[in-house]
Specification:
The protein has about 450 residues and is α/β, with parallel strands linked by helices. The chain folds into three domains: about 230 residues, no CATH class; about 35 residues, no CATH class; about 70 residues, no CATH class. The strands form four sheets. Strands 1-14-13-12-15-10-11 form a seven-stranded mixed beta sheet, with helices on one face. It has a six-stranded mixed beta sheet with strand order 2-17-16-20-18-19, with helices on one face. Strands 3-9-8-5 form a four-stranded antiparallel beta sheet, with no helix packed on it. Helix 3 packs across helix 6.
Length: about 450
């Protein structure tokens, strides 16, 4: 199937990563963060000071203790970081540098049936790689998805190139796909760009769909909406292609190998390349302070949906890039860089500046300044221009704000996730935190209706 996404917006930023893969420094500390998994209430299985191996369970889901969250390294539990009301924010683990595996025997999961595969993936700590729509949380094992989606490209600003990352890794990818395909009676849909690498175009046990168009064409929510629309009572799962390879490696070797390749980019970092690291690695093992310009913001993830972190922070579980951009905390002279400036170097999604007449390939050095504060939430017609769903975004958001569950359902909340509203948030005149509103709405639906 060929899909063309017409609504959206490509934000061209300076600082794209060079096509070079380097090994990051060994992470002396890694973190498992329950906050990376919306809706999760963790139950600790270990105490501070206890030893772990690669694949050792650290905590589980309190309401489904079969779903384990495991250590990506071997070493000792350093600290259980708690917040308000003793909520667990992170579990940090000191590495012993040995990467000793809990299990080294190959697991031919492809010979198992669906229920046996689920049990094996949950006990091995591989289940959290699967997320579900609706609600956008870790998949519920008892559900039967009508299909599973894999997006073979990322359209976010400065996103990693999966064609480059996955090149030559067909064996691991196809081993993972064989297992994934047994978890649904429907299709495993793999979405690719028109010029995709052979690892995607020749993938087995999948239905390959070609997608083109501006961001958010790479978002799995848009792809589900176009290919297999989600209705109330239905479930779709999705997974990142690199995480499919982790499952494939586990099946081939029996080892829990959480290594992945991420991109490091942005206008305020000098070393822009791809790094091989592990999930939850400390930021200072990947990027160096001396390569970062002063007054910069480090983001785990992309500029639209990522999390601000410090150098003593950690890479997010689902993040495959690190972005470093200027911090927007400096005053701007209104005639030079402010609201009365000519705007020849300013990006505009609403044709407010003459740059909309320039080449679409022009790249911008944008900072984090919102250029205004939160104000009245008004109907401006901006969201609809960048929101490629057959959904009324403003009406849906207002139904969430007013906690109108019936209207939330009627207006399509089962189809969306916070990342689907990231562009709406970017172009929003009112400067409203739309992604948080959507997350709160999904949490309400999960609590009241599922």
């Amino acid at each position: 199937m060929k899909i063309s996404v017409r609504k959206g917006l490509d934000i061209k930023l300076k600082g794209e990563s060079d096509k070079i893969i380097a090994d990051s420094k060994e992470a002396k500390v890694v973190a498992l963060k329950p906050t990376d998994f919306p809706g999760l209430v963790p139950k600790m299985l270990l105490k501070e000071g206890e030893e772990v191996k690669c694949g050792s369970p650290v905590f589980c889901d309190k309401y489904n203790d079969e779903i384990k969250y495991v250590s990506p390294i071997s070493g000792k539990v350093k600290e259980i970081v708690r917040g308000e009301k003793r909520r667990i924010l992170a579990v940090t683990i000191d590495s012993d540098g040995k990467m000793t595996q809990l299990n080294n025997k190959p697991k031919d999961l492809a010979k198992l049936d669906s229920s046996e595969i689920k049990s094996e993936l949950m006990s091995a700590g591989l289940w959290p790689f699967f997320k579900m729509r609706p609600i956008d949380i870790v998949a519920i094992p008892n559900d039967t998805p009508k299909s599973i989606f894999i997006s073979g490209f990322d359209s976010h600003p400065l996103a990693p190139d999966y064609d480059f990352i996955m090149h030559g890794k067909s064996a691991e990818f196809n081993a993972g796909l064989e297992i994934v395909s047994k978890l649904t009676s429907g299709n495993v849909n793999l979405q690719v760009k028109s010029n995709a690498d052979e690892v995607f175009t020749s993938a087995q046990n999948v239905t390959v769909n070609s997608v083109n168009g501006p961001h958010p064409a790479g978002n799995v929510g848009v792809q589900i909406h176009q290919i297999d629309t989600l209705n109330k009572g239905e479930v779709v799962w999705y997974i990142n292609p690199q995480d499919v390879m982790v499952i494939g490696r586990y099946s081939l070797t029996g080892a829990y190998d959480a290594s992945k390749i991420i991109s490091v980019g942005g206008s305020n970092i000098s070393e822009r390349k791809y790094y091989k690291t592990i999930s939850g690695a400390s930021m200072d093992s990947i990027i160096d302070q001396k390569n970062i310009s002063e007054n910069s913001r480090v983001i785990s993830g992309n500029v639209l949906t990522g999390d601000q972190v410090s150098l003593d922070g950690f890479l997010g579980f689902y993040h495959h890039q690190i972005t470093v951009i200027p911090e927007g905390n400096q005053h701007k002279f209104f005639l030079k860089n402010g609201w009365l400036s000519p705007g020849f170097s300013s990006f505009s999604a609403s044709k407010a500046y003459p740059t909309w007449l320039m080449s679409k390939s022009k790249k911008y050095d944008l900072d984090t300044n919102l250029n205004g504060e939160e104000r009245a939430f008004v109907v401006s017609g901006q969201y609809e221009k960048v929101f490629p769903f057959d959904i009324y975004p403003v009406q849906l958001l207002k139904s969430i704000i007013t906690n109108d569950i019936e209207n939330m359902e009627n207006l399509g909340i089962y189809e969306v996730s916070p990342e689907d509203f990231a562009l709406c948030e970017f172009v929003c005149t009112s400067k409203v935190n739309l992604q948080k509103i959507v997350r709160d709405g999904l949490d309400t639906i999960y609590k009241e209706c599922m």
